[in-house]
Specification:
The chain is 6% helix and 43% strand. It is mostly beta strands and 223 residues long.
């Protein structure tokens, strides 16, 4: 139909009391296909922990929005195409080891009709082995006194009476053994440090000698 005939027909219909037909609108474009996202969390419990992937509350956060889409580990979800960040909630005792399949900070750029994957790994570090408990009776400190019995000796400032040999159980470590002049005798060492090894015995030897009077050196007045 030519343009002139269309105008004439429109005028005739209007004249007969009929409104002109509205123009035909094209159909709306179809909605874009969603993207499919699968997030998988791997949990390594090396110290007896019981955490599961879903304990980390995995979620997708779109762009700068604070709205989050909860997701379950290993189950694909369909979302509008766009930029998403894979977020999680830490679990005490577990360290986050990084992302796989998405950016280092967990960002995914999704496209319509495409599938995307992001993996996370959480590790519970192994506990350090407990140090062996060494019974204190397996380590000891021995003091040997020669030349004077009994003698007073101090171990870390605490006096003990020694009859030739004295032994006591002590935890491993360094101890200070001191002696002083007594009963007319003087020790060869006034102080010494004794090392008590693990599972062994530390030994301190103190030799007392009688003091020499100055009168025995020569004839002195008043001796």
């Amino acid at each position: 139909m030519t343009k002139a005939k269309f105008i004439t027909l429109t005028l005739l219909l209007t004249a007969c009391g009929q409104a002109p037909l509205p123009p035909v609108q094209p159909p709306p474009p179809p909605d874009p296909e969603p993207a499919t996202v699968t997030v998988t969390a791997t949990v390594l419990s090396l110290a007896g922990g019981m955490a599961t992937p879903n304990d980390f509350a995995l979620r997708l956060v779109q762009g700068v929005s604070t709205q989050a889409i909860p997701i379950s580990s290993g189950f694909p979800v369909q979302v509008p195409a766009g930029e998403y960040r894979v977020a999680f909630t830490p679990v005490p005792g577990y360290a986050f080891a990084g992302y796989v399949g998405c950016s280092a900070d967990g960002v995914l750029i999704t496209r319509p009709g495409q599938s995307h994957f992001c993996g996370l790994t959480f590790v519970e570090p192994p506990r350090l082995p407990e140090p062996p408990v060494i019974p204190p009776e397996t380590s000891s400190l021995a003091v040997v006194v020669l030349g004077l019995e009994p003698a007073t000796i101090a171990i870390d400032g605490v006096n003990v009476t020694v009859n030739r040999n004295h032994i006591e159980y002590r935890p491993p470590g360094n101890y200070t053994v001191t002696a002083k002049d007594q009963s007319g005798y003087k020790p060869d060492k006034y102080s010494q440090t004794v090392v008590v090894p693990v599972g062994g015995t530390g030994v301190a030897v103190v030799v007392f000698a009688k003091k020499v009077s100055s009168c025995s050196v020569g004839v002195m007045t008043g001796c």
